Fold each of these.
Amino acid sequence: MLRLEKSHGAARLDAACARALRFGNVRYRTVKAILAKGLDALQSPILATPTPSTYTQGGRFCCDPQTLFH
């Protein structure tokens, strides 16, 4: 990673690492590709985060009959 800082600068490397963290893939190759494609300059897309009850109460698309046929 430090080698990438020398060639792209600390600010760009920080942005690329933040983007890679956002997608859960912080491998060297991924960060290098983000920098090469200039994706570090783009705003990171907003990823939908499930609520804590999503997986503990039947799943994302599971509804009880009262809610479904309201």
Amino acid sequence: QATPKAAFGFPALLTSKPSAKQTGSTEGACLRVTFPAEENQATPKAAFGFPALLTSKPSAKQTGSTEGACLRVTFPAEENQATPKAAFGFPALLTSKPSDAEGVKVKLYFVRHGETDWNLESKIQGRNDIPLNTTGISQAEQLAMTLKMSEYDIKAIYSSRQKRALVTAEIVGKALGIPPVVKDGLQEMSLGSWEGHTWPQVREIFADEYQIWYKNRRYQVPPGGESYQQLLDRLLPALSQIMEETEGNALIVTHSAIIMTLMSYIYDTPFEDMAKNYKTGNTGIVELEKEELYKKIYHN
């Protein structure tokens, strides 16, 4: 879970859920917040999609202490308000905003990279930095034309640092006039010693390890690799950062295992069935509402 940005000039970590009274009511709600000692943080924005007005003065404990402090915050019923105002000379508390003030749903579009030669050969790529082939470049160019359609309205592009994803993102970014941002956490799953082999080869060469992994693949780590749970543990903070940083729809160019794992997590389906349920072709687009992902990450 990403850390919300600053309140009162300090980075703030929300440690208790807001009450139902915050969804449009003018009645105050108590938030428990900790304030680490660092001071150099950005100006805070809205809280939970509503402009926030602090109505009780912060205590001395908030000035650099890590001890929690109870803040009384009101959330006006009107949604079409400007940036939240200050109270007692302090700016309002920031946390993620799942949709804009008019209620339009903000979208995250997850895209698998274009084709590589290893895709054609059915080899496990993992962390190997395999480039796009000529078909993959053409696929990325076609994807760029598709995403130029107004219905997508992309405002930001994020990418894995691996070449097959980053070049796909760069081709799209050039067409849309949006430079892609490399984000740690979006890289493909590491499958260690199995990379460079096909799945039938893995079942034959690494028979014992494969059977152990196959029966508990969410948590079992393949030799020299990572589990799907470890993938989630790095992916979800990256997505939290993207949601904090982005206003409007975002494109996230990444990899097959990333998309399948995320979808299995969001919809609570067995990780053993992810390929059957969520397998995505090269440059396939998977759409998620930002609010849906936000609720799953922050309120699961």
